[in-house]
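Entry 14. Structure prediction run on the chain below.
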Amino acid sequence: MEYIKDLPKIKRKDQFFYFYPDSTVSEIADMMDLKDIGAVPILDKENKLIGILSERDIVRKLVKNGRDSDLVTAEDIMTKEVKSATFQTKIIDAQFLMKKNNIRHLPIIDSKNLLLNFVSQRDLIIRDVNNKKLILIFITLILLFILITLIIKT
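Output returned:
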């Protein structure tokens, strides 16, 4: 059974972006576009997770209502009821949580609600693909070994 803690470091804290509640949606959207990311965690002054701002939030709560992204802050439109996981969460449970709640990003937090990592469905898909590649290599080696053994015996 694999746990979130068993994943290779998907992202270090300096590799994912986070913002504060008073950040404007305009500046967040610019960074999301620049870095090709679909969501960012929103942290309070103590760096505790308080929300997530996603592309969906921007479209549904800002664009759809004709609001000005320079005047609207993350706090105004972020998702506040955030689903999260810990390093002790099983990977399969994290995937189920994301599927069940139709979310594409999952913050990894500690017992104090401090953000440790930010995992996307894409990260987990890449992990699954890499695991399948390893399995295919292993099967290929076994078949090659069997073939060589058969050739030697004849």
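The mean pLDDT is 88.
Filed with the rest of this week's runs.
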